[in-house]
Amino acid sequence: MSDVDAAVTRAHRGEWARVVAALTRRFGDLDIAEEAAAEAFATAVERWPADGVPPNPGAWLTTTANRKAIDRIRRESKRDDKQKEARLLYDEDPPEPLGAIDDERLRLIFTCCHPALAMETRVALTLRMVGGLTVAEIARAFLVQEPAMGRRITRAKDKIKAARIPYRVPSAEDLPSRVSGVLAVLFLVFNEGYLASGPDTDPVRQDLTAEAIRLTRVIRALLPDDGEVAGLLALMLLTEARRTARVSAGGELVTLDEQDRGAWDASLIAEGHRLVRERLAAGVAPGRYQLLAAINAVHTYARDIRDTDWSQIVALYDQLARIDPSPIVALNRAIAVAELDGPDVALAAVERLEDRLAGYHAYHATRADLLRRLGRSQQARAAYDQAIALAGNTAETAYLSRRRDQLGRS
């Protein structure tokens, strides 16, 4: 990758959300903001190799995107819209009172996470508009086909326009009731960064994990008594602490049982454990993120994989299944059950999920590992093949391929 290509990539990761947010605030239209931002980055790809990378890439991209947006409005405007067009071109943006959060990207998140939209639509739209993920990456996160996800995002933008959903942060009084949708967004953004689903991206995208953690810290500062905000932050920190040990120097996924625990970030683990202890001391029934954080706390307390308290992990998954009876939770519980009751018991639980998880690579990867442990090599190989075909992450594909090839050929 050339220096200019690297600069464009950095700018996209660091500036995409800011550019989209600035345009959305000025023009009040997500379609215009997204398309103009995309055109500005395309222009950068064309011009920066010849002109050089500008001293302030973000300002250059925002200015270019503004011009692209105005050009589009000019093309689409009718003659009786000239007065409105002139105001867009020459008027200053009117001052606006500050909301509960003075951050343009969070303003954009709350617009995308408006209750008028279905939960999955809020998450998908925010991943696209704020996270800058491609439609293909978002589709993988939702386990749906790419064209269907594209239509979902388009309908969401149309609904925001038709319903005139305001581009603002909720008032302090409304903020708690609106935060659950934002947490769901940040969780998926973090997951996409921690183990990126795209085959043409880095297997770990620290820009996304760092942004998800940053925004969660902001919300935590605003809602210090919200247990789920604290739980999500703890979950992210305990997961991020293991990031550098997750991928080998050769670009292959390193599973939890094989990771060098000495390479984990002790300061992030300490902060995550502190948050988990604070929530336990609060004496309030934990929510989904708090339980996931507690599970990760048990993992990170163990100095060696053999010291892991699997019975406590299974008990926490039992609690989680009562409030989130999803097949993903059941799959992860089965992985823990394998350590307590053996791979045969776990395999029976996993295979009951086939109808619901047939398109999910982790289902096939888990089944392959259990079959391998039971000595059923031929079936394990077939399951690894299915997992490899569905996995998008390059590090994960390399790991699954090695495990499959270790089985030999029957």
UniProtKB/TrEMBL annotation:
Protein name according to UniProt: RNA polymerase, sigma subunit, ECF family
A molecular function (GO) term: DNA binding
Keywords: Sigma factor, Transcription, Transcription regulation
Domain annotation DUF6596: ranges: 178-278
Recorded family membership: Belongs to the sigma-70 factor family. ECF subfamily.
Domain RNA polymerase sigma factor 70 region 4 type: 109-159
Domain RNA polymerase sigma-70 region, first and last residues per copy: 18-78
Species for this entry: Asanoa ishikariensis
BP GO terms, sorted: DNA-templated transcription initiation
Keyword Transcription regulation belongs to the record: yes
